[in-house]
Amino acid sequence: MLVFSRLTHCAHYFPPSAPSPVVILETVDRYPELAAALNSIGGKITNEQMRKLNYAVDAEKRDVKEVVREFLAGLSLIDSISSISRKHS
Asked: What's the gap between Cα 48 and its chain centre?
C-alpha cells in the first residue's frame, strides 16, 4: 500500500548561489577580450539578484537574453559585453 503525504513548499527557500564563469580555454584563446568581460561581472550578482533573475525567467516566462541585458545594463556593463558580441558576429 502506498502512502502519500502532502509536502509544503517554502517559498522563501532558494539555495545560495555563487555564479562563476566557466569557459573552454580554446574559446578564450579565440576571443581574448571575453575573459576581461566575464571577470568584470564576477562577484557582482547577489543571491537576491540571482533569485530575481531566475524568477523573471522561470515564473514570469521572460526571455533570458532580455533579462540578462537589463541586468548588465543596470551594472553599466552592457557596452563591454555588446562590443565583444558585435565584433565576433
From this structure: 12
